[in-house]
From TrEMBL:
Domain Multidrug resistance protein MdtA-like barrel-sandwich hybrid: start-end pairs: 73-207
Taxonomy, superkingdom: Bacteria
GO cellular component assignments: efflux pump complex
Coiled-coil ranges from the UniProt annotation: 110-178
Keywords annotated in UniProt: Coiled coil, Membrane, Transmembrane, Transmembrane helix
Taxonomic lineage from the root: Bacteria, Pseudomonadati, Verrucomicrobiota, Verrucomicrobiia, Verrucomicrobiales
Protein name listed in UniProt: Efflux RND transporter periplasmic adaptor subunit
One Pfam family it belongs to: BSH_RND
One GO MF term attached to the UniProt entry: efflux transmembrane transporter activity
Family label: Belongs to the membrane fusion protein (MFP) (TC 8.A.1) family.
TM stretches of this protein: 7-25
């Protein structure tokens, strides 16, 4: 009996559950289909303008003297005197004696050469007298019609004596040069960079004595990219050199030349500018400077920010419907932050300068800024 009751209760509960489930099914609402808004990227635009632009080529370099000399001894001996200016950083004038090597041996050599020259000149005079005497003797003893030969007339002996005079004169000249070489004369106005010997130093031929440089003309080597060579208009151009850091002093320089070859290390071309070292407050060698070299004018080009490029030759253009397309362009020159474009962009077109993770042709964007100015939502939707 109890078993029948339990089965009846289970059946009632089951049937009741079915009725409740049916009621809940009737109460359920069918969800309406949703259309979520498409994600729209916010972008900044710049307006393309075609202009005639003068190329400015930035560069930097170190000031160095145009003339550097490493002087070496031309004679041997002991240094017996030095100039007060013979110190590192010492300034000297053209012709100043910077140091002197003991000249005693060279004075003696000069005296000996002069004595030998005097003896050779005496021999010439004697030979001339002997030649005259030989002519007279021949006239006295010769038979009619006989002609004396050169040996009888002492012509070879006289020629040898005269040649010996020339040789002795050359020896005197050499001895005088050696004596003069005992003094190191400054070849130009300059400054001592390195002092290599001092008082009492024994030097031989070719021993380095000092390194110095001219102060009249300074130079700076300015590397520029090889591709900028097409925009050069250099020789005689005046440029302004500015020091890096410090008081931002500046100096005028004149472009003198290029070094005429491409650097193997970085594929650049070296432009050399010259500075008047005699000007007031001239830069010192070793001064680091930077400048801009004025190049040629490029007609009818657009200056495009690098951010507008998705590839090396493709830019992002935003049309009237706020859709992005990419377009191939012709690049004329690449600068630090901008690229000069000659073809592929029309005047007044809008360029996207916002970096997009993925650019899909025809994708919609929301303009939030144009030419650096904020755009209102109403105008951005127009």
């Amino acid at each position: 009996m109890k078993r029948i009751v339990r089965i009846a209760i289970a059946v009632v509960i089951f049937i009741g559950g079915l009725f409740v489930a049916a009621g809940l099914m009737k109460l359920r609402k069918t969800p309406e289909p949703s259309n979520p808004p498409k994600p729209v990227h916010e972008v900044e635009l710049v307006t393309a303008r075609r202009l005639d632009l003068k190329v400015m080529i930035p560069s930097q370099g170190t000031v160095e003297p145009a003339t550097v000399t490493r002087a070496a001894a031309e004679v041997e001996g002991t240094v017996i005197a030095v100039s007060p200016d013979y110190e590192v950083g010492g300034n000297f004038k053209t012709g100043e004696v910077l140091l002197e090597i003991d000249p005693s041996d060279y004075k003696a050599a000069l005296a000996q050469a002069e004595a030998s020259l005097a003896d050779a000149k005496l021999q010439v005079v004697q030979e001339e007298m002997r030649a005259e005497q030989a002519e007279r003797d021949w006239e006295r003893i010769a038979r009619p019609g006989q002609t004396p030969n050169d040996l009888v007339r002492r012509i070879p002996q006289l020629a040898a004596a005269r040649a010996k005079v020339d040789a002795m004169q050359a020896a005197v000249d050499r001895a005088m040069r050696d004596l003069e070489r005992t003094k190191l004369h400054a070849p130009y106005d300059g400054r001592i960079r390195q002092k290599l010997v001092d008082l009492g130093t024994r030097v031989g031929k070719a021993t380095p004595l000092a390194e110095f440089y001219g102060t009249d003309i300074l130079e700076v080597r300015l590397p520029v990219p090889r591709q900028d060579a097409a925009f050069f208009n250099l020789r005689g151009q005046e440029i302004t050199l500015t020091e890096s850091g410090g008081t931002d002093r500046s100096w005028k320089a004149v472009v003198d030349r290029t070094e005429g070859e491409i650097q193997r290390a970085n594929r650049s071309i070296i432009v050399v500018a010259r500075i008047d070292g005699k000007m007031k407050d001239a830069p010192l060698p070793g001064q680091f400077v930077h400048t801009e070299i004025e190049g040629l004018t490029i007609d009818h080009v657009v200056r495009v920010p690098r951010r507008a490029f998705v590839k090396s030759d493709r830019v992002m253009v935003v049309g009237d419907g706020h859709t992005v397309t990419t377009r191939q362009v012709k690049v004329v020159r690449t600068e630090k932050d901008d690229v000069l474009v000659s073809e592929g962009i029309e005047d007044g077109e809008q360029l996207c300068v916002t970096a997009l993770t993925a650019v899909i042709e025809g994708m919609e964007v929301k303009v939030v800024s144009r030419d650096g100015k904020a755009v209102s939502p109403e105008s951005s939707e127009q």
